[in-house]
């Protein structure tokens, strides 16, 4: 029995056992399946000043994470919306920054489908906000039908994994 417990403890220590907050389950489109968690934020070119960071929100068992790399006006990163036992989506973002706003295209992957979504982030100190709500297809990507309405995500700066 000791050998078994030792093996389980060692396995957990080496693989990060229990570090996930939710199982890989999904329900309905258009949100969807979880995909690889590796960040797509590119390293800044040599000599360029980079900014950005990681942001996170955990509410109950739901987790939302955002990683941003900002080089001048160019922005890259990854957004992951991971509600517990519900529709999950993640993917790379690429856009531009103007003042405290970032307008980006999110290659949102879920339930085996990847589609472009427009997302507008607002940067304020150690937080990032953006709205989510009813979307319509416009010029080949999903945009908010009414950008002033809907749910507002608010994430705070966190350590990058």
């Amino acid at each position: 029995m000791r050998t078994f417990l030792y093996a389980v403890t060692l396995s957990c220590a080496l693989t990060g056992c229990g570090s996930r907050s939710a199982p890989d389950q999904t329900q309905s489109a258009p949100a969807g399946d979880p995909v690889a968690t590796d960040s797509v934020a590119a390293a800044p070119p040599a000599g360029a000043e980079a900014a950005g960071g990681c942001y996170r929100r955990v509410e109950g068992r739901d987790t939302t994470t955002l990683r941003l790399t900002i080089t001048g006006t160019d922005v890259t990163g990854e957004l992951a919306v991971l509600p517990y036992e519900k529709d999950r989506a993640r993917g790379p973002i690429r856009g531009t920054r103007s003042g405290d706003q970032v307008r980006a295209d999110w290659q949102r992957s879920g339930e085996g489908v990847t589609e472009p979504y427009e997302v507008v982030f607002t940067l304020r100190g150690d937080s990032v906000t953006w709205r989510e709500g009813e979307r319509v297809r416009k010029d080949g990507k999903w945009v908010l039908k009414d950008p002033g309405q809907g749910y507002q995500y608010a994430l705070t700066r966190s350590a990058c994994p």
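Residues 1-49 have pLDDT under 50 and may be disordered. Helices lie at 2-15.
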